[in-house]
Design brief:
By secondary structure, the protein is mostly helical. 73% of the residues lie in helices and 0% in strands. The protein has one domain: Tetracycline Repressor, domain 2, CATH 1.10.357. Helix 2 packs across helix 3 and helix 2 (19-39) crosses helix 6. It is globular, with a radius of gyration of 18 Å. The termini are far apart.
């Protein structure tokens, strides 16, 4: 089984079969993602259940421990990034990469909250990282091959750059988006001096 299949299978394996139970599961995932992004890993499970419109018992039936909830939210975020990379394979190279990186910025907010709870040695964390690299790296390579992105940058360099930019404290999201735009601009290739 590949890392990508493992990551995609985490949520699928846990998602209930009954439609009403699936709705509750999905509502809990969405509420947990929002809560972790807003309040960090210490977000209240009771508040997550309340936000999802279910009781705490429903939360524990779906996610028996806080760690299982962290792993599932994290895997779901990475799986969404992987699926987006698949959807962007036919997009113009620069547009595909830039679109994927915008989604990666959103992912880093949730990741920061969960990273410490899931130590870097977690099997899920390691599989998610490898799956994300396998899905996103082709977008960078395509943009580099098209001559639209600097060739002296690895995908790991790119992820660290974007993570660094998104990890800073900003006055507001407008400032964060502006700095992200400057970062994207700095990745683009430039014509040689004297050439159009």
């Amino acid at each position: 089984m590949t890392d990508r299949e493992l990551v995609g299978g985490i949520v699928v394996a846990q998602r209930p079969r009954r439609a009403d139970a699936r709705r509750n599961f999905d509502a809990l995932l969405a509420a947990a993602r929002d809560a972790f992004a807003e309040k960090g890993a210490e977000a209240s499970l009771e508040d997550i259940a309340r936000q999802a419109g279910v009781g705490i018992g429903t939360l524990y039936r779906n996610f028996p421990t806080r760690r299982v909830l962290f792993e599932t939210v994290y895997a779901d975020e990475v799986d969404a990034l992987c699926r987006l990379a698949d959807e962007l394979t036919d997009a113009p190279p620069w547009d595909g990469l830039a679109t994927w990186l915008r989604r990666f910025v959103d992912y880093t907010v949730t990741k920061r909250a969960i990273r410490d709870a899931l130590s870097g040695e977690s099997d899920i964390f390691v599989a998610c990282r490898r799956a994300m690299l396998d899905a996103g790296e082709p977008l960078l390579l395509r943009a580099q091959a098209a001559g639209e992105v600097r060739s002296d940058m690895s995908f790991d360099d790119l992820l660290r750059l974007i993570s660094g930019v998104t990890g800073a404290a900003y006055v507001d999201t407008e400032q964060r988006d502006r700095v992200f735009g400057i970062t994207l601009d700095g990745m683009r290739t430039r014509p040689a001096p004297g050439k159009p």
